[in-house]
Amino acid sequence: MSKQVPETIKKQAKRSFNSKEVKQEKNQKRMKLLKEIHEKAYKRAEKYEKEYLEQEQKLVELKQKALKEGSFYREPEPKLAFIIRIRGIVGVPPKPRKILQLLRLRRIYSGVFIRLNKSSLRMLHFIDPYVTWGYPDVETVRALIYKRGHARVNHQRKIIDSNEMIYDKLQKYDIVCMEDLVHEIFTVGKNFKHANSFLWAFKLKPPVGGFSTVKKSFVNKGEHGNREQYINTLVKKMI
Amino acid sequence: MTTQQLRPIVSVFPIKGKVKTIKQVPLPSVFSAPIRPDVVRFVHTNMAKNNRQAHAVSTTAGEQTSATSWGTGRAVARIPRVKGSGTGRSGQAAFGNMCRGGRMYAPKKVWRKWHRKINTNQKRYAVCSAIAATAVTPLVMSRGHRVNKLPELPLVVSDQLQSLTKTRQAVKFLKFIGAYRDVEKVIRTKKTRVGQGKYRNRRHVLRKGPMVVYARNLGIKKAFRNIPGVETASVYTLNLLKLAPGSQMGRFIIWTESAFKLLEDIYGSWEKPSKFKSGFYLPRPVMVNTDVERIIKSDQVQTVLRNRRPRSRKYGKKIQRADPYEDMSVMLKLNPYYKTKLQKQKELEEKNKEERKEIVDKSRKEYEDWLYFSEEEEEEEEEGSDEDREIEVLSDEN
């Protein structure tokens, strides 16, 4: 018994974006792409591990060399900072409030990466009493992005659950996987801006073990302001 | 202009003999006018107000007392009370709408606006819609007319009908053409009016039966006058209140041939204006092609559409993902090199451990050697060291 297929359905089937073949093709393309990304991710991760190790070793070498010569080795100033907002939103004066907004630190225990330069240091100066900040190391950056990294996709906050997500948004900046992202952030590369804005502001937990006193600066046995490398231990408590 | 570019043909039937087509005439353009129940309802509700007679309450009703309020201090309500004594009426409340025998609230006046003006074009629009609806069988049936046995709708009949003079002839014709069932319905459902109209000279209520529309009255009016439910009308003066009684479109109409043809002149078309209504063209529909589904499915539309977007997850499930530092599969999805990295770290640790072990062993050995060596030295020193000791003692005393 042959069924008469209506004209409209026949026409619809003909149209490209609905047909089985096109869907199959699309799917195949996607699978191929995922495989590519997977391979790239492996290779680049390997490359970056080496790079980080080399950097460390280089630093040590230069210091030793300087000692031998009897001079000092001045380390390059840090390029990357991680800021955590440690005060709430009540009673914040307008200037720090605006700066915190600009830095995407809109709630307590939110954290962002920031590139350090003269302008941003000035901004940090204004918001010192409301934040604590420091220079994160690779493992901290990694932990933050892997465990608490959410992407800004379509004006929505979505957890990064695959490299495809990163590829879709940041492929044009040659960032295709998690390790690429970590590398771009940690080394503050050419596309730091885009990598950073891809990330939603980190929402951290209150620190295990608590704070001493947020009202004093870190230097005065309190918590706010620049705490250089001790940011790493703090992030471990808050992640 | 309209989807019906080809004018369909309507059969003309005789008034007696055999029910078969004697002629065919084209359908006038009015029947393709847009059917707008909203316009018809609006015009009908306002038009129906136009045959009202003014009524009002007497101007003096309830006011024909000289009642005055007793004021306060008398343990009674302050409403005006009828003056005087010696009768039951005295002291009773008067004037208020709440009082027995008082004037009503806002007494009705004759100068109430009883009639309504309706824009001429709107009126004509409604009539065109109503006429178009008389050709739509489902509408006529839903209005309640018994039209199952009719040969065709719209029902057009030869002009001989206009020359009928006797009611008997008229009834015979209706039976011949199959329209008598509708008349029977009217007769069968004649009832006493519900409500007080029954003793106000409006005792009976009748349904509406077929309407006969003629071009020239050569006796037809009188012939159909006494048949219950049947109304006659000249095609020049079609009344919306009759075409859509109760603002319900789809009256059953029997047209005479010349009346039917005249419709084209009276109402015109979209190209030619009406000959009788100056400057009047048939109303245009809002949508020429109302088959929306077909429009959407057409090639012209479908080829220009963008692709369907994937269903947005915005209000759907949140993607849960385990902590990559606890779940290795999640970690490997994000960083396939991680496992290798851990392996390498482990190897490095092992290597370092071994190296350290070597170094520690070496240094321990050196230390033990040194210890052993120094013990020997100490023994040697102890044997020959008296002189030194004496000197020391002397120095202390001093």
Automatic annotation (TrEMBL), chain A:
Residues 1-29 are annotated as: Disordered. PROSITE patterns: RIBOSOMAL_L30. SUPFAM superfamilies: Ribosomal protein L30p/L7e (SSF55129). Keywords: Coiled coil, Ribonucleoprotein, Ribosomal protein. Residues 18-29 have a biased composition (Basic and acidic residues). Residues 5-76 form the Large ribosomal subunit protein uL30 N-terminal eukaryotes domain. Residues 31-65 form a coiled coil. Residues 81-131 form the Large ribosomal subunit protein uL30-like ferredoxin-like fold domain. GO terms for cellular component: ribosome. InterPro entries: Ribo_uL30_ferredoxin-like_sf, Ribosomal_uL30, Ribosomal_uL30_CS, Ribosomal_uL30_euk, Ribosomal_uL30_euk_arc, Ribosomal_uL30_ferredoxin-like, Ribosomal_uL30_N_euk. The keyword Coiled coil applies. It comes from the Eukaryota. Pfam families: Ribosomal_L30, Ribosomal_L30_N. The keyword Transcription does not apply. Gene3D superfamilies: 1.10.15.30, Ribosomal protein L30, ferredoxin-like fold domain. Belongs to the universal ribosomal protein uL30 family. This is 60S ribosomal protein L7. It comes from Anaeramoeba flamelloides.
Automatic annotation (TrEMBL), chain B:
PROSITE patterns: RIBOSOMAL_L1E (PS00939). It holds the Pfam family Ribosomal_L4. GO terms for biological process: translation. It comes from Anaeramoeba flamelloides. GO terms for cellular component: ribonucleoprotein complex; ribosome. Residues 374-398 are annotated as: Disordered. Keywords: Coiled coil, Ribonucleoprotein, Ribosomal protein. Residues 278-354 form the Large ribosomal subunit protein uL4 C-terminal domain. SUPFAM superfamilies: Ribosomal protein L4. This is 60S ribosomal protein L4.
